[in-house]
Design goal:
Layout lengths: L2 E3 L5 E3 L4 H9 L5 H20 L4 H18 L22 E6 L8 E6 L17 H9 L9 H9 L7 H7 L9 E7 L5 E7 L2 H7 L3 H10 L10 H11 L10 E8 L8 E9 L3 H8 L8 H18 L18 E9 L8 E8 L7 H14 L3 H14 L13 E4 L5
Antiparallel strand pairs: 1-2, 3-4, 4-5, 5-6, 6-7, 7-8, 8-9, 9-10, 10-11
Helix pairs in contact: 1-3, 2-3, 6-7, 12-13
Length: 419
């Protein structure tokens, strides 16, 4: 077992991966691009699967499936260290992100990954903003993912589409340093071997081209999912849009960021998610956005926010005895992503679960320091086994972007469900 130390405070430890070795003996790469992406990603995936105690059968299944579909969908490999098509999916410009789904009431963690499928046409005159990559990929894998349904995917893709004659205008208006993604996909790798597929759509390209606000594009797309039987998302959506309207004309207004769906057959109560990027540099400001200015009430919202308060205090070393702690600006102008998960109902009241994504790279700490903070959080919340191996797991799985010298950055997603 070899090891090395990186500048971010985390050692990179190479571990024996017998299942990956077995799969590598089976494959014969048909292109240099595919070989590049497989070499760049497979070790991390194999390490995460092994460290999180997936069965040997599940590890083989996921590694084989990954090799078959994902590397070809990442497009051409970087050229002279620069991405062929820079989508800015992640902070370090990687087109790919691994994550671990931790739930306080579950003993098992689920491995996930997210990426923007890309083709050789991306960034060319044929497809300047990569509107074809995700659709081509989803259509291709549909025959190999049981239960995959693209009805909502196609609906949302069309709602955020930029007409070909408006692409140049949208590019001219595109802000510098703003993500270029059009649509991305994510996969939850269940221990059973079943894949849970989700899709995410950024409305800003369509907003730039059409002049229609991103929040309106999202709102219209969600309302189009209301059912003929009276089930609708209106109560939840009205609460979100009503709160966003209170920021009209303000420079620091929350930004309608993403629209997301699960790629399964439409059923009563099917969930949709709206992502809002908002400034949240104090707990008081975070709470205001979390409960939509008081529009979300009840025991569930209160209990959920209490869990977030505990995490916030843990991250920033705040004390419950300090009466000013909630108002302290922990990282000036820090922004978080609020995820409003809604299900269709017959009522007019909002039915929302809220999740919070905290971009850890804003905290000014190394991955090593952050892993220690998170390990102590897991320890204090009933997962001593995960706490004990968390930093070493990160050491083993450390993924370094092919595009830069920066290591893969941690994003912690927190939610407290009703059950």
């Amino acid at each position: 077992m070899a090891s090395s130390i990186t500048s971010n405070g985390v050692g990179h430890v190479a571990e024996a991966l017998p299942i990956l070795d077995e799969v590598n003996q089976e494959i014969r790469s048909d292109s240099e691009d595919r070989a590049f992406w497989w070499e760049a990603m497979s070790g991390t995936l194999a390490t995460l699967l092994q460290a999180n105690q997936y069965s040997d059968e599940a590890q083989r299944h996921y590694l084989r499936w990954f090799y078959k579909w994902v590397p070809p969908a990442l497009g051409p490999r970087p050229i002279n260290g620069k991405p062929y098509y820079g989508s800015w999916l992640t902070h370090d410009l990687s087109p790919f992100e691994f994550s671990i789904n931790w739930k306080e009431k579950s003993r098992k963690q689920i491995i996930r990954f997210t990426f923007e499928p890309t083709t050789k046409q991306a960034g060319t005159a044929t497809d300047p903003i990569n509107q074809l990559g995700t659709k081509e990929f989803m259509n291709t894998i549909s025959k190999d993912v049981p239960g995959l349904d693209l009805t909502r995917f196609n609906q949302f893709l069309e709602a955020t589409n930029v007409p070909s004659d408006g692409v140049d205008n949208a590019i001219a208006k595109h802000p510098p340093n703003f993500p270029r993604c059009r649509a991305v996909v994510a996969f939850d790798l269940e221990h059973s071997g079943d894949l849970m597929v989700k899709s995410y759509f950024l409305p800003h390209w369509r907003a730039l081209q059409s002049g229609i606000p991103a929040k309106t594009i999202i709102s219209d797309a969600v309302r189009a999912c209301n059912g003929p039987d009276g089930l609708s998302y209106d109560g939840s959506l009205d609460a979100i849009m009503s709160y966003l309207s209170t920021f009209e004309g303000q420079e620091d207004a929350p930004l309608a960021w993403l629209l997301s769906n699960d790629c399964v057959a439409d059923t009563p109560g099917m969930r949709l998610k709206v992502y809002i990027l908002s400034e949240a540099d104090s707990l008081t400001k975070l709470n205001e956005m979390y409960n939509l200015g008081g529009r979300l009430k009840g025991a569930h919202i209160a209990a959920s926010f209490e869990g977030i308060r505990e995490l916030w205090y843990h991250l920033f070393g705040l004390s419950g005895s300090d009466l000013t702690a909630n108002d302290k600006v922990c990282v000036d102008k820090m922004k978080c992503v609020f995820v409003y998960e809604m299900r269709s109902t017959h009522g007019s009241e909002p039915d929302l679960d809220v999740k919070l994504h905290i971009p850890m790279w804003q905290l000014g700490k190394s991955d090593g320091q952050l892993s220690e903070v998170m390990a102590s959080w897991f320890e204090s919340h009933g997962h001593p086994d995960l706490a004990a191996r968390y930093k070493s797991d990160l050491n083993k799985a450390l993924y370094v972007s092919p595009f830069s010298s920066f290591p893969h950055l941690i994003v912690f997603s927190s939610s407290w469900p009703k059950s």
